[in-house]
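Key result, reporting period 2: structure in, sequence out.
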């Protein structure tokens, strides 16, 4: 049975890495109990899903992100629209994470349907690379369920960062890509020489879609031909301060929580059409509240040159 095989693989993977987990209720160590559950000394029990993920959320939660949005984000990734961003993140990990003989552990906090983590793990796989463990966590079960069904070689966890189910100082890299952060937890989970990589949208991110649906004037693209632009790191090691914008305030807060060792501006544009365009339109919250007819009309109007604009912030623990 496919589902039984998935469960067996997941249970084996978790068993080999039990030391990474803690109970989200009492913070005690979690252990595998057969092939179906994880359990702590206080008998708090968390089930493994037949779809191939572990549910570590002890209470009911609601998420505004649904299966259709996650499906569209997965398809958007499949069409390569995030590839330059993935390449930039891979390069940061290869250059900035200290080499070690043991396993490289990467946590994607707010992984959604897992397409970013899956692509990054694949990009890092080389004959001379260390063993890599990827763990994706998200509070939205629909996203985690899709991630697990993809068959990607990672541990997928439905969990709340506010009650994180992981032991401290266990991760070499924490990814936080276009997702809310919990800096206190990141500081607890990161190894002393580890790296946090946070991606935030720039001012031109999907500006053409914003103009299409909300009548905002789109700024001119900041790049031509899909170039990637590097911003030099300021001498004081802190991120470029742009407090007038939400992205600037986020970068400023990041610099307060971590020793910011690098900031890169990744911007490119792509001509998007057909199925890829429809999935891109449905993936973004910019289409929330837009009538279905308007989305279909926009998707059917032909190719749209779309700007992708990100700030990639890399930080280490403040000593």
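The corresponding designed sequence is given below.
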């Amino acid at each position: 049975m496919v589902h039984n095989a998935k469960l067996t693989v997941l249970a084996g993977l978790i068993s080999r890495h039990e030391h990474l987990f803690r109970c989200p209720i009492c913070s005690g160590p979690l252990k595998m109990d057969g092939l179906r559950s994880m359990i702590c000394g206080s008998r708090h029990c968390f089930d493994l899903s037949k779809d191939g993920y572990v549910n570590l959320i002890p209470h009911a939660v609601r998420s505004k992100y649904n299966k259709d949005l996650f499906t569209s984000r997965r398809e958007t990734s499949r069409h390569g629209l995030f590839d330059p961003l993935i390449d930039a993140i891979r390069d940061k990990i290869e250059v900035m994470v200290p080499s070690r003989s043991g396993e490289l552990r990467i946590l994607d906090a707010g992984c959604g349907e897992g397409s970013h983590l899956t692509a990054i793990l694949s990009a890092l796989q080389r004959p001379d690379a260390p063993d890599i463990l990827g763990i994706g966590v998200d509070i939205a079960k629909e996203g985690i369920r899709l991630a697990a069904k993809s068959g990607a070689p990672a541990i997928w966890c439905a969990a709340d960062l506010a009650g994180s189910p992981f032991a401290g100082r266990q991760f070499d890299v924490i990814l936080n890509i276009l997702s809310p952060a919990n800096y206190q937890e990141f500081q607890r989970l990161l190894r002393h020489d580890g790296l946090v990589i946070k991606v935030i949208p720039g001012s031109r991110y999907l500006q053409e879609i914003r103009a299409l649906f909300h009548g905002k004037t789109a700024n001119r693209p900041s790049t031509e031909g899909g170039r990637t632009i590097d911003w030099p790191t300021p001498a004081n090691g802190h991120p470029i301060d742009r407090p007038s914008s939400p992205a600037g305030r986020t970068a400023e807060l990041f610099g307060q929580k971590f020793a910011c060792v690098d900031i890169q501006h990744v911007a490119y544009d792509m001509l998007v059409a057909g199925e890829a365009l429809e999935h891109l339109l449905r993936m973004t919250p910019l289409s929330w509240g837009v009538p279905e007819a308007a989305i279909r009309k926009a998707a059917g109007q032909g190719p749209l040159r779309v700007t992708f604009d990100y700030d990639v912030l890399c930080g280490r623990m403040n000593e």
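The chain has one domain: 61-317. The mean pLDDT is 89. This case is discussed further under Risks and Mitigation.
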